Records
---
Amino acid sequence: MLGTILALPAVALSITQNSTYTNPILPGWHSDPSCTFVAEEHNSFFCATSSFLTFPGMPIYTSKDLINWRLASHVFSRTSQVPQIGNTTVQNGGLWATTIRYHDGKFYAIVSYTPESPFVVTGFIFTTTNPYDDSAWSDPLVFPLIDIDPNLFWDDDGTAYIQFSGIHQQTIDLKTGALGPASIIWTGFTKFIPEGPRMYKKDGYYYLMIAEGGTALGHHEAIARSKNISGPYEGYSGNPILTNTNTTEYFQTVGHADLFQDASGNWWGSALATRSGPAWQNYPMGRETVLFPVTWKTGEWPVLQPVRGKMSGWPLPPQTKAIPGSGPFIEDPDIVDFHVGSSIPPHFLYWRFPPKDAFTVSPYGHPNTLQLRPSKSNLTSTAPLTTISELSFISRVQTDTLFSFSVDIASFEPKLLEEEVGVTAFLTQTQHLDLGIVLLPTNSYSSNGETKLAPHLRFRATYVPANTGNFDGTVQTVIKLLPENWQDGPIRLHIDAINETHYAFSTTLSKEPDAKELIGIAPATILSGGDGPFSGTLVGVYATSNGGAGTTPSYVSRWRYEGKGQDIGNDTFVPYSPFIESH
Ligand SMILES: *[C@@H]1O[C@H](CO)[C@@H](O)[C@H](O)[C@H]1NC(C)=O
Ligand SMILES: *[C@@H]1O[C@H](CO)[C@@H](O)[C@H](O)[C@H]1NC(C)=O
Ligand SMILES: *[C@@H]1O[C@H](CO)[C@@H](O)[C@H](O)[C@H]1NC(C)=O
Ligand SMILES: *[C@@H]1O[C@H](CO)[C@@H](O)[C@H](O)[C@H]1NC(C)=O
Ligand SMILES: *[C@@H]1O[C@H](CO)[C@@H](O)[C@H](O)[C@H]1NC(C)=O
Ligand SMILES: *[C@@H]1O[C@H](CO)[C@@H](O)[C@H](O)[C@H]1NC(C)=O
């Protein structure tokens, strides 16, 4: 592929300008990416990814060099924009597959909401002129959708169209939401699950690029074109145009692509991929965002470079971190101390909406802590869920194959049985690994004959049966009395991805950081697939009364997350993803 790119006559390229970078560009759960280039916004790139049940949702990332990506904003940051998220029980429901586009000075984010299966889909369109500010995103234009994955496209005459799975197309009035009649314009190359459509107009053709095969090992991209937007569309004889199906590549499930040009006119594409290898068993980070170079000569079909861990292609724009906004860069570690007057970091996520007043930074009397009010429901609650329950759970995305996460439990004085605060690696409410401090009965009795309660460390794994998920085995619950001299704390709780396949949960007194004691180990296959085949692992803290009447708050401090390495396939680890070398 490298030869193909360098042989291109249209653009003056020299070998010295060629660049290499590594995938994924948005590591960790960043599925269903849509990316676009906006010259008017200082030659910046913008990518949107799916958020499902997490809130704030619909993250937008921005970069000027395709390598350094910063969280620009969340389109969905006010519960009133999509109140349905608070009522969504199915673990894979919520907001799927945002498409981001820029048109006439405005950013548009279009998305579908899916509450449950069978699908009852709703479409939402949000707009802004300031993509760096959550609050600048509009309330949505809401419209009915026949199917998922809406795309937005303007023809030269200004008519706006949506395309969505099927592949359907209809016109849309962006002021009123009024839709024209829907028609199926292409059923795809394999005709199996045609979805994720993109429309581009180039050299007198409408190019319709779609994902097919379902978002698993058979996922791939196909393309068709027509001189009339309504069709008929002619499929390309070279389909599929992007696939890792039936290869031994570490990056699998490649699809849901989008194409865009940089300031030099070179084409690029984004897609989702899963770092699982063809075994597709161990992939706790779920579907991530990858970048690939594209050559697209006049009048011809685009050529998409296959997705690998290490990529070569077009010269990248000059590297810079001078990007507006206050969000973290994707590879930044978390060093969060909840200082007085600070806010909860913008990349921290809740599962559905946070309970009212559940999280307070540095409340009176507890400076430099995050106060958690427990939810009655624990992380499992009534899974498989039939009722909605609010969870006192706050998290971030696991963005590295290997990482180290820890928090201090600065103070926690539980009074009632089963009051608990802890750390979790969480995929869904049916798949999570928790290490908590919890009030449990002891073997001793008080003078009035009642069992004495005392804080314990408890490690437990919640997982789906082997016929639903990727884990076939058992993980023993570990319960240990908290040493008496630990009760003044602070106590540090750790989660480490010790290798690609296992998480270790350990603890120590914060003042003795090197005296870590291992409490439990669990396999990452628990956090792969199952009820969460479309999402990826979050790490964070939770507080719960486990169904009891307890309301004791807990105080968390010194939140740390640090990447320790990305596996990019073929036993190659890189310190951060993506890194860059110039030849
Ligand atoms: C959520 O559920 C509650 C209780 O059933 C209902 O009152 C409310 O209207 C629902 N909200 C939405 C946005 O569906
Ligand atoms: C891989 O190739 C085999 C044999 O050609 C085919 O039967 C199988 O369906 C392919 N796998 C996928 C996921 O397409
Ligand atoms: C495109 O196709 C539609 C539907 O067949 C037809 O009504 C329309 O006239 C065509 N447009 C052009 C520009 O040919
Ligand atoms: C990963 O760690 C687990 C737990 O220590 C161990 O059983 C497994 O063999 C390790 N895997 C590799 C590839 O080192
Ligand atoms: C969650 O809480 C319920 C009671 O509400 C309890 O039965 C269950 O064991 C708890 N599970 C976990 C994993 O916390
Ligand atoms: C990794 O190894 C496989 C087979 O050994 C090979 O097909 C693939 O191209 C390699 N990938 C990279 C990025 O080197």
---
Amino acid sequence: MAITKSFSLFSTVIFLLRITVDAQNYGTALQDNFYNSSCPDAETVIQKAVFAEVDKNLKLAAGLIRMQFHDCFVGGCDASVLLDGNDTEKTASVNQHLRGFEVIDVAKEAVEAVCPGVVSCADIIAYAARDSTIRLNGTGWAVQGGRKDGCVSFANAAEEELPPPTLNVSQLIDLFAQRGLSEKQMVILSGSHTVGVGHCDKFIERLYNFSETHSTDPSLNSTLAEQLKKECPPRNFNTTLEIFMDVITPGQFDAKYYVGLTKQEGLFTSDQSLFEDSRTNDIVKSLIDERTFEREFGKAMRAMGAVGVKSEGSVRLNCRMNNE
Ligand code: HEM
Ligand SMILES: *[C@@H]1O[C@H](CO)[C@@H](O)[C@H](O)[C@H]1NC(C)=O
Ligand SMILES: *[C@@H]1O[C@H](CO)[C@@H](O)[C@H](O)[C@H]1NC(C)=O
Ligand SMILES: *[C@@H]1O[C@H](CO)[C@@H](O)[C@H](O)[C@H]1NC(C)=O
Ligand SMILES: *[C@@H]1O[C@H](CO)[C@@H](O)[C@H](O)[C@H]1NC(C)=O
Ligand SMILES: *[C@@H]1O[C@H](CO)[C@@H](O)[C@H](O)[C@H]1NC(C)=O
Ligand SMILES: *[C@@H]1O[C@H](CO)[C@@H](O)[C@H](O)[C@H]1NC(C)=O
Ligand SMILES: *[C@@H]1O[C@H](CO)[C@@H](O)[C@H](O)[C@H]1NC(C)=O
């Protein structure tokens, strides 16, 4: 009787512990060095492939950092963004300029050659994002592994879940909170706009006929505004033209994005609002410190990389399609 009772108490405690652990990890236990016994060379092989591909076209590095965001915010970090098909996430207009898919393919082939069927595509996205920041002179972070790949991907889910650049701070805070991410983590993750580009259509509303009182967004630096007007004329602007988001050090993964915000040089409303809004202004200022930013960015990418992770699912053999 006593044994049964304490046993059942014991299993209740274990059960509750498991629920707590599961809740923290959104359904599965992610781990550092996840492949250390099942595929000890996985991280090295992936990094080598990512470095080699990104060195051929450095623009892809920013694409791969963005890839983790666009994967994790739509149905969790499950590589759904990689699936090919008529109406999958990658066909959505928000993903029109998303790039780096071929880099994932090369990394996947390389890791399949050493450990067939072991490393998930969702994990490869997380490693590739980290390795890309290292290639842009960032410091990197330890990436957790253990995600399973999902099997569904819908364009309209991407359109609904990913933010347009016109969002204000309230909307951004809400969107990140829905994934268990804090307003501080939202500001830190926005710091990835320290690399990469945007297109004219994403900010043109800030340049012309902005409001009844201001033809140009008053929170946009007037020197930068004049330059952007030349690059993006009101009509028939060049839709393929790429505009740097961090004009101070566009190719460096550093904290200069936040310095730019203090000079009203944020390219999108969603960037500049972080400095203008009293809820996030102090966070922006604290992240100007390089070491603080690098440390906090890694921590925030680990948190974003745990959103909606699946413990059930497959390890796709080809990241673009489900296994037979
Ligand atoms: C906070 C809300 C966010 C909004 C509204 C936003 C919006 C955008 C937009 C509109 C672009 C440019 C698209 C184009 O015209 O080509 C862009 C690019 C980019 N975003 Fe974000 N983003 C956000 C958060 C993030 C996060 C959390 C990350 C990663 C952690 C990220 C990483 C990037 C990168 C690296 C690029 C450049 C891509 C390239 O050069 O190919 N963004 N983002
Ligand atoms: C692999 O890494 C995990 C987590 O860091 C650790 O608990 C485990 O002991 C490691 N296994 C080996 C074989 O190194
Ligand atoms: C996409 O649609 C076309 C025409 O409807 C069809 O032939 C093709 O098989 C579809 N592709 C996939 C991957 O579903
Ligand atoms: C990284 O820094 C080194 C040394 O300062 C520099 O030579 C290199 O060009 C930088 N890499 C990038 C991508 O800017
Ligand atoms: C943010 O935008 C929403 C939707 O347009 C609006 O209702 C809200 O008042 C705005 N909040 C702030 C603080 O600007
Ligand atoms: C701005 O608004 C005016 C009056 O509505 C219009 O004539 C003009 O074409 C608009 N300019 C742009 C760039 O949209
Ligand atoms: C548009 O921009 C792209 C990319 O910078 C450039 O290659 C192309 O020549 C531009 N097209 C026109 C018509 O200026
Ligand atoms: C606008 O940008 C220029 C160039 O970076 C800078 O010197 C100036 O202080 C900025 N203006 C404002 C209001 O921050």
---
Amino acid sequence: MKKFKYSEITPEKIYNNRRTFLKNLGYGIGGIAFANNALANTDLSKPTSYKDITTYNNYYEFGTSKGDPYKKSQDFKTRPWTVRIEGEVEEPIDLPIDEILNSFPSEERVQRLRCVEGWSMIIPWMGFSLSELLNKVKIKPEAKFVKFESVYDPENMVGQRRAVLNWPYVEGLRLDEAMHPLTTVVTGLYGKPLPNQNGAPLRIFIPWKYGFKSGKAIVKIELVKKMPMTAWMWASPREYGFYSNVNPNVNHPRWSQATERVINGEVFSPRVKTLMFNGYGDEVAHLYTGMDLKKNF
Ligand SMILES: Nc1nc2c(c(=O)[nH]1)N[C@H]1C(S)=C(S)[C@@H](COP(=O)(O)O)O[C@H]1N2
Ligand SMILES: [Mo]
């Protein structure tokens, strides 16, 4: 399989800088003053609009442009669908999606998404803790990590016909991260079923990690002994580590992670300071006690 060169993808940061540059040219000093002001005053409790959440996405199975997932995923069929839980468990199980939706009631969970490219959203998901789903199986003591596999279906996912990533999309967590109550199985958005472009019928969401850790359209959850190789580590290990906790002090090799552009419908997409663990430090920092988070990026 041909390896895709990541330097060929225009980073969001460059696109954004170009826009800021043009904007500042047009608005002169006023434009710059406004940008500084926005850095301090953005309301981080206002959810991003349904339209922005569902039309500005990364979902490479449907293409690499932000508009592709919305445009190219509408005919994707999410029934029938089964999620298999296997690996270091007493008894593997196959769970039909409707059984999952019926046996685990979803609640609204407003969570912040920080994409590694430098943009963020506040998303009112519907979902429940992954730990509840994992408790359906008896996990063996040998299990130390959890591997998430997204669907492989190049016939119905145009983006998978190109070797942009090493398909299927694979992500992973340490077992204690997976069991943390904030780690969510997402089944809906704004009180409605999850749209295809956001990972229907079921996706994982880990709010303190960069967005790419939160795999969409999950078909397999595997309990494993060793740290799994992920799609992004395979693509560019220097840039994407296993942990990928949101961390303003550890820059991406090609751009800073200190600030982010909040997508919230404002004309001048405001930039705010990125928070350690995406603002969830009180809840999750204890998971990383004694770890060097610069080495374990
Ligand atoms: N299967 C799969 N999952 C994926 C991706 C992808 O390309 N394929 N993109 C990731 C990235 S980079 C981000 S930022 C989030 C975006 O989630 P959203 O579309 O719900 O905002 O999904 C993540 N999960
Ligand atoms: Mo992302």
